Amino acid sequence: MSLEQPCRVLIVDDSAVVRQILSEILASDPGIEVVGTAADPLLAREKIKRLAPDVITLDVEMPRMDGLAFLENLMRLHPLPVVMISSLTERGADTTLQALALGAVDFVSKPKLDVTRGLQGYADEIIEKVKTAARSRVRALVRSPVVPKVTLASPGATSAPRPSQFRTTDRLIAIGASAGGTEALRVVLEGLPADAPAVVITQHLPATFSTAFAERLDRHSAMAVREASDGEAVLPGHAYLPPGGKHLRVIRDGARWRCRIDDGPPVNRHKPAVDVLFQSVAQSAGANAIGVILTGMGDDGARGLLQLRQAGAPTLVQDEATSVVWGMPGAAFKLGAAEEQLPLEKIAERLLALSRS
User: Fold this and answer.
1) Which alpha helices (DSSP H) does the chain contain, by range?
2) Residue 265's Cα: distance from chain center in Å?
3) I need a labelling partner for 274 at 20 to 30 A (CA). Which of 48, 138, 182, 280 fits?
């Protein structure tokens, strides 16, 4: 797609009302051309071949073929940027996370009631996410196995305990991410051992998604991944995410760090915000921290990463080639906040090396 031409969008949804509303919203932006709509995945498949869209918006629950099954086939055989239109429910959260794992770039939440007014309220977000998706990098789907979680030996076990490789209390890893980040975080956490330094994370997600997301990461990580509770100690071998719709900060309490859950206003239009986490880590951990920004839209986290670097912490960002959206990491790099750019698959290894230094 050339920069001068509008991005071509195909809308796939079984609701005629939703197709009409999305068409009106997207067509209102001169940078977008709605080239067609489809009521189910089988019709969509034919229109993809005929219309060659740059982006697809896709509902999950549709007749004739499940949206996830369609997405999986699409990302294996004909990868295209996809923005999911998903419902803000617990079941919807898990389904959306599955869609992101299959390669969807981003998602827009669809209200259960009063869809017309609800979608109109999301108009700016829908337009922004579709245009960002058109510039994103998608790859053919390659299935990765779930890494089984290593459990501690029972008290009667005869094997000797393995000594920790890291001076874990000396380091605190802080990670921020947005669009594309749910899978990028999985890759990073899969690469960290059970005795790795503590990790604190902010990922832009709706409030109702946080529990399902923490559980999903926990299944893929040797570390214990959990939603943080206010005041709990930050421990090695654990990764902490903010509970739904709240900021996560780190505070110093004598010789240890603790989580602080903050219900303050959005920062950079986000709650949780990466800048809130990073600024607190810069103040509480300083040079003992390591700051990382993964793929994401916008510039949240760039100023916080700069504060971390100015406090003496090593800082790095995911490189452009492996980022789904190089907005947040690119903004941080341009600001001079990042010491290094690394491909996603090298970040966990680098974090472990920095943790030993």
Assistant:
1) 16-27, 41-51, 67-77, 90-102, 115-121, 123-134, 181-190, 210-220, 274-284, 302-310, 328-334, 344-356
2) 21
3) 138
Question: 13, 86, 109, 204: which one is catalytic?
Answer: 204
Q: Is 300 a catalytic residue?
A: yes
Asked whether the predicted pLDDT for residue 2 surpasses 70, the reply is no
pLDDT value at 146 more than 50: no
Active site (annotated) includes residue 247 = no
Please state the three-class secondary structure of 253-277 as a single string.
ECCEEEEEEECCCCECCECCCHHHH
Taking the model in full, what pTM does it have? 0.88
Give pLDDT tens digits for 40-80.
999 999 999 999 999 999 988 777 788 899 999 999 999 99
Q: Tokens in use for 246?
A: 């709240």
- Out of 86, 109, 178, 355, the active site residue is 178
Active-site residue (options: 262, 299, 300, 319): 300
Dig out the tokens for 319 from the structure. 């490189």
Distances (CA, A) of 41 to 58, 60, 72, 196, 295: 9, 10, 12, 43, 29
